[in-house]
Write a structure and sequence with these properties.
CATH superfamily: K homology (KH) domain
CATH class: Alpha Beta
Distance between the termini: 29 Å
Number of helices: 3
CATH architecture: 2-Layer Sandwich
Number of domains: 1
Largest sheet: 3 strands, mixed
Strand order of the largest sheet: 1-2-3
Oligomer: single chain
Structural class: alpha+beta
Order of helices and strands: EEHHEH
Radius of gyration: 14 Å
CATH topology: GMP Synthetase, Chain A, domain 3
Number of strands: 3
């Protein structure tokens, strides 16, 4: 939502871990995969400002959805061809089968 049309449909997010904490909050580690180095740079932004902004908004949305505080840790990684890996597409519900 924050990158509008700058990041095409060549990005996906994978939840690496989801852990409930003793205080009732959750910790979520997620990786955003992009196909090109330029997309990674756009998502991170100058001085990390864009990814920080994305994380802040996502934390608020997740907190409302889960009805508890959420600690979100985002990573951005380039992975050329992720959108052609059949197992990955199947895992996120985008396969043709």
């Amino acid at each position: 939502m924050q990158t509008h049309e700058e990041i095409p449909y060549q990005a996906t997010v994978e939840t690496e871990s989801f852990k409930e904490r003793p205080d009732g909050s959750v910790r979520i580690d997620a990786t955003i995969y992009v196909s090109r180095p330029g997309h990674k740079a756009i998502l991170i932004g100058e001085g990390g400002r864009k990814i920080r902004s994305i994380g802040e908004r996502a934390r608020l949305d997740l907190g409302r959805l889960l009805e508890r505080p959420c600690h979100l840790f985002l990573n951005v990684r380039e992975r050329a061809g992720w959108d052609e890996e059949k197992a990955r597409l199947r895992a996120i519900g985008l396969d043709d089968a």
